[in-house]
Amino acid sequence: MALYVGYLAAFLGMVCWIPQARQVWVTKDTKSLSLTANLLFLATVSLWLVYGLMITDWPIILANIVAVIAMIAIVAAKLKFK
């Protein structure tokens, strides 16, 4: 049962930032996004990814690979479309 909870959390963690990343690249509107908050979250999910790799926990690894990619896209958009 715990494995299913882990994979569900991983799935939700993966998909939750994709709409935001898509939205900022489509609209090029980033004025309401905090660069500091998004950089901190990028650092957070990057560290979770490293942790997942260290303990070989696939739900954590998969979720945070996608989260890191989405956060990089959001931060890149914020820097590009100031």
TrEMBL record:
The chain crosses the membrane at residues 6-25, 37-54, 60-79. Keywords: Membrane, Transmembrane, Transmembrane helix. GO terms for cellular component: membrane. It holds the Pfam family MtN3_slv. This is SemiSWEET transporter.
